[in-house]
Amino acid sequence: MRADILTIFPGFFRGPLDHGITRRACEMGLAEIQVHDLRGFTHDKHRTVDDRPFGGGEGMVLKPEPLFECLDTLQLAPREDRVARRVKQSVILLSAQGQRFTQKVAAELATLDRVVLICGRYEGVDERVADFLADRELSIGDYVLSGGEMGAAVIIEAVTRLLPGAVGNEASTRQESFTADVERDSEGPDSTCGSGGLLDYPHYTRPAEFRGIPVPEVLISGNHEEIRRWRRQQALEKTLRNRPDLLDGVALSDEDAKILARIKAGQE
Ligand code: 9D3
C-alpha cells in the first residue's frame, strides 16, 4: 500500500512512522509513505495556507488551493472511479466532523492500493475539499484535537498492522478471529478485543511476586482448564467495569452468562 499524507507539519511524522511495525512494513516494501508539505504548493512570498472564513467568525480556515494542487501531483484515478470502487484508492479528509474511524474502517482501508490522508488544521478546512476532493471524511474519536496529524498517524498504524505480512504469525492469527467478530456486527466490538468481542484478560509475567504483590495463584497452578475459566471471568469483569457497552452486542455462552450473573450478584 502507498500512503500520501498532506500536512502543514511534515516534521510531525518523523517519529511515529519511523518506529515499530510501520517502520518494518516500509523496510519490507509492504508500505510506502510519502509526506507532502502543503506550503510547497503555495505561490506567495509568505507561503500562505490559511485564510479568514467567509461570513465571519472565529479562527482561520485551511485554503483549498494548496490541497487541490498537491493532489493534482499524485496521479490518482478520477474521483468517480474511486468512489465507485473501480480502483482501490481513497482520498480521506481527517476532521472533527468526519465519520468515526473504527477497526472495521481500518480493515476496509487495508484492502486498498493507495490512501491519501489530508490533515485538517485551524478552525477547519474549506468545505470544497470535503465535497469535491476527498472521497470520505473521518474522525478518530469524540475529543477535540488541533488538527488531523494525530489522526493520520493513528490510521496509518492501524491499517499497516493489517497488511499481510506486517505483523508476526501469532498476532495475525489473533487478528483474523477479531476481524471476523467485526464483520459479524458492524456496531459491535471495535478495538481492544482479544477474542469474542470482550476486553482482553489481564496478563502477568515474572517475577511471581513483585514489591509484595503476587501474581494470581491460578496462573501458577498449571491447571489449564481453571486458567481458561479464570481468564474468561476476568475478561467479563473488566468489560462490565470499563466497557459495559460491549456486552450488548456480544454472544455469551451459557458459561459466560453464568459467570456474568455471578459477578453482577456479587456487586450488590
Ligand atoms: C468550535 C469547535 N471547533 C474547535 C473547538 C471545532 C474544531 C475545529 C477543528 C474541532 C477540532 C478541529 C481540529 N481537529 C481535527 O482536525 C481532527 C480531529 C479532532 O479534532 N478529533 C478527532 N479526530 C480528528 S481528525 C482531525
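^ 9D3 complex. Residues 94-96, 120, 123-124, 139-141, 143-148, 151 surround 9D3 (CB under 6 Å). The CA atoms of residues 21 and 262 lie 41 Å apart.
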